[in-house]
Amino acid sequence: MSEDEHRGFDDQPAAPAFPTIDAALARRLIDAQFPQWADLPVGSVAVGGVDNRTFHLGDAMTVRLPSGPGYDGQVDKEQRWLPSLAAHLPLPIPAPVAKGVPGEGYPLNWSVYRWIKGETASDESIGDLTEFATDLAGFLVALQRIDPADGPPPAGHAGFRGGPLTTYDDETRRTIEALGDRIAGEAATEAWETALRATWNDKPVWFHGDIASGNLLVRDGRLAAVIDFGCSGVGDPACDTVIAWTLLSGESRHAFRDALSVDPATWARGRGWALWKALITYAEGLDGDPGKAAAAKRVLDEVLREYEQSA
């Protein structure tokens, strides 16, 4: 870049600061764009998200605001596809009620959904983990059977879930090197390279993209709903197996794999997705969030343990 080009780049006006997303902002947006709900209270939910900030709207709805410009594409995707996907799935998923537009200083589109009751999936809320794993696999099988025609491809707003693992090859290798002797670097590299070699050549299918505990709701100990389809699309479904290492283990992991009929190559790629996420989350947590680091390290150790057992 020349000096003149560099000067011109620096002289560009700075992008406006992204507004604080809180219940007060959600309140203003509802009042301005959907006055029919002005009498309904707006409040924070018990478990928030990363890509979106979610708020209760009365007892039956939620307001979801993308947390940054990079997640804006999730709104139109969910508005377009969730109603048609719901008809083919064995469990409830979010139902869009309305679509909001930029306003009140907030620059992005946003959504209102029906509220789905349930507790976040955890060891405490799940009654039988093996039964839970089998039910989840059944949901994913049904999702993969839905006609993928015209479905959204892997995209940046979804972290390229459903795409090739090579997207994160450089980042993964740099993170392994940076972590040094804090982890079993040689084993991590071997597991990662095994995942890269397990290339995907099948026809694209629907995937959720973020099958994590926070997006799985439980009632009476059973899987009751699957939420947050912002990372969903049509492509490689290997990313939907990550839950096998983050929540499941032993018998429940085997039941999940069997019910999902996952071939060895897809399982290896799924392990790669879990490995990448655990590595970068562990590295981030070491910079000041010990709880985050410890949780990521537990997943990382589980990934490498299962890899070594399968080798």
Describe this structure in words.
This protein is an alpha+beta fold and 311 residues long. It folds into two domains: 11-114, Phosphorylase Kinase, domain 1, CATH 3.30.200; 119-310, Aminoglycoside 3'-phosphotransferase, Chain: A, domain 2 (Alpha-Beta Complex). The chain is built from ten helices and ten strands. The chain has helices spanning 3-10, 23-33, 73-86, 129-144, 169-179, 185-197, 243-246, 250-260, 264-285, 290-310; strands at 42-44, 52-57, 61-66, 96-100, 110-114, 119-120, 205-207, 216-219, 222-226, 233-235. Strands 1-2-3-5-4 form a five-stranded antiparallel sheet, sandwiched between helices. It has a three-stranded antiparallel sheet with strand order 6-8-9, covered by helices on one side. A two-stranded antiparallel ribbon has the order 7-10. A hairpin with a 2-residue loop joins strand 8 (216-219) and strand 9. The N and C termini lie far apart (48 Å).
